[in-house]
Amino acid sequence: MQLKADISALMTTLPPDLLLHIFSLLSAGDLAAMSMQDTYLRQVAADTSMWEPLSLARWPGADAERHYGGDWHSLYMARAPLPLGFPLAADRIHTVTAVQQQQQGVVGVGPAGTRVLAASSGGGGGSFTLLPQLAFEDVMRQTFIAGLACAKDKAVRRTAEWRGLKQDLTWWATERPVVVVAFIRGTHEAIAGGTQRGLSDTAWRRSAVAFLQDLGLLAGAHASVVNRIDAEAALLDRAFSSSAQCGRPAAPDGVPAAHWWFN
Q1: Is residue 74 part of a domain?
Q2: What PROSITE patterns does the database record attribute to this sequence (predicted)?
Q3: Which residues pair with 117 in a beta bridge?
Q4: Among residues 4, 1, 5, 8, which one has the least CA distance to residue 35?
Q5: Of these four, 92, 95, 112, 116, which has the most CB atoms within 10 Å of its CB?
Q6: Domain coverage including residue 213
């Protein structure tokens, strides 16, 4: 104990630049332990430059500017207690959504560099909705992961990442409702196929939609859009009930029985 105290006392005499170099070699746990020794050491250990690589190693898609004013130390401390899958899922959803927002209706490049426009979000047909649909498929896979994390740890819903997740998903419901509805309708094909793989795929897809409905993730969307999503989900449930191959599907691994959509 005396040796540990002597080392801590010695480190308080070192200049900040040298301490930063030493601390940059430590793990997150060691940094946290060091910051508990002394006010001076705590101030140096909280330097955001050291926490950026630690944060990105754990959450590769993290962006401290979005919720934490560029403070990587605050980001790490806020995320560390959460289920690992939740920040990863929220980051992925934001990345995919941001790309779609930047495109603003341009989803690809056609022959000779011509732009290919997406179908209107307000309805109508169009043969150029493939890329937004694939993007939303990715978003919903991550929504399923985020929903599972929320079911296991209610603290998730008090985070800045949760608020950002709601904003991203509301954007899809508001600006790309056709894509959201197409995702739900696509599960009918899996039911019609009747294969084990198809039914398993349908289960997570319907569960992801349930998270949208039950966790308030579309709170900012227009009521007409939410009603349309609810109606499509109800049609899917009836298709499940009437399918001889399906019966009543069990909850996927990790989904609490009380949280499963199919009662």
Answers
A1: no
A2: FBOX
A3: 106
A4: 8
A5: 92
A6: 83-263
This model's pTM is above 0.90? no
In a domain, residue 177? The reply is: yes
Most confident of 41-50, 53-62, 124-133, 175-184: 53-62
CA angle 163, 169, 171 (to 5 degrees): 105
How many other β-carbons are positioned within 10 Å of the β-carbon of residue 130?
Answer: 13
Q: How many domains does the chain have?
A: 1
Residue 129 resides in a domain: yes
Q: Is residue 46 part of a domain?
A: no
Q: pLDDT (tens digit, 9 = 90+) per residue, 2-34?
A: 435 555 666 677 787 888 888 888 888 888 887
The answer for residues whose C-beta is within 8 angstroms of residue 235's C-beta and 6 or more apart is none
Average pLDDT, the chain: 76
Contact by Cβ (8 Å): 206, 236: yes
Please tell me the predicted confidence (pLDDT) of residue 245. 52
171's CB contacts (< 8 A; 6+ apart) are: 97, 101
3-state SS string for the chain: CHHHHHHHHHHCCCCHHHHHHHHCCCCHHHHHHHHCCCHHHHHHHCCHHHHHHHHHHHCCCCCHHHHHCCCHHHHHHHHCCCCCHHHHHHHHHHHHHHHHHHHCCEEEECHHHCEEECCCCCCCCCCCCHHHHHHHHHHHHHHHHHHHHHHHCHHHHHCHHHHHHHHHHHHHHHHCHHHHHHHHHHHHHHHHHCCHHHHHHHHHHHHHHHHHHHCCCCCCCCHHHHHHHHHHHHHHHHHHHHCCCCCCCCCCCCCCHHHCCCC
